[in-house]
Write a structure and sequence with these properties.
Blueprint lengths: L1 E7 L3 H14 L4 E5 L6 E9 L2 H12 L7 E11 L7 E8 L1 H16 L12 E10 L2 H10 L4 E7 L1 E8 L6 E9 L2
Length: 184
């Protein structure tokens, strides 16, 4: 099974703001694949394909972590990965609460390291809102980025995170929560 660890966006206002930004992005010549706002999430760690017995070890390790308290994350601004060259990912950033997110991601990473699972990259607090195949008009795209560079999407209370199973389909990924973990 293909696993990752994440907190999902539950605030309706944030989802609506993401939809608005994605809608304006779709007006730019190029090929963009927006992420469905109903499944948008912060990924703390991508694990990848594992056998069921490893998934059980992951569940057990995560349940042993001393988690930080609940916190709010202010989602603000847009950017791209990579920051130079051809963009591949469009993201919404986190202005307030990023330190707590990093602390949570580090706690998760430490727990998983104890069973030999290392993060594939360092955690950077963000929401992937679209994937980019190509941009036909970088001038328009850069104007769009500038327009939304300080856009406030809203505050999301981070009170839990999930171990999530990802099933890839032609219509897009299907996510199923394997286990949910509450913050204090």
């Amino acid at each position: 099974m293909r696993l990752f660890i994440a907190s999902f966006i539950t605030e309706k206002d944030i989802k609506e703001a993401i939809n608005l930004v994605q809608s304006e992005l779709s007006n730019i010549p190029g090929k963009f694949k927006p992420v469905n706002s109903e499944i948008i999430h912060f990924t703390y760690q991508f694990i990848g394909e594992v056998q069921p017995h490893i998934a059980e070890k992951i569940k057990n390790e995560l349940s042993q972590i001393n988690f930080p308290e609940k916190f709010d994350a202010l989602i603000k601004g847009v950017g791209v990965f990579p920051p130079k060259g051809n963009p591949r990912v469009v993201w919404a950033g986190v202005e307030e609460g990023s330190e707590n997110m990093i602390k949570l991601a580090n706690n998760i990473s430490s727990a998983l390291r104890s069973i030999g699972i290392k993060p594939d990259k360092s955690f950077k607090p963000h929401l992937t809102i679209a994937r980019v195949k190509f941009v036909n008009n970088m001038e328009l795209f850069n104007r769009w980025k500038e327009k939304f560079s300080s856009h406030v999407f809203g505050k999301q209370n981070i009170s839990r995170f999930n171990l999530v199973k990802s099933i890839l389909t032609r219509q897009g990924p299907i996510y199923k929560t394997v286990m949910e973990y509450e913050l204090r």
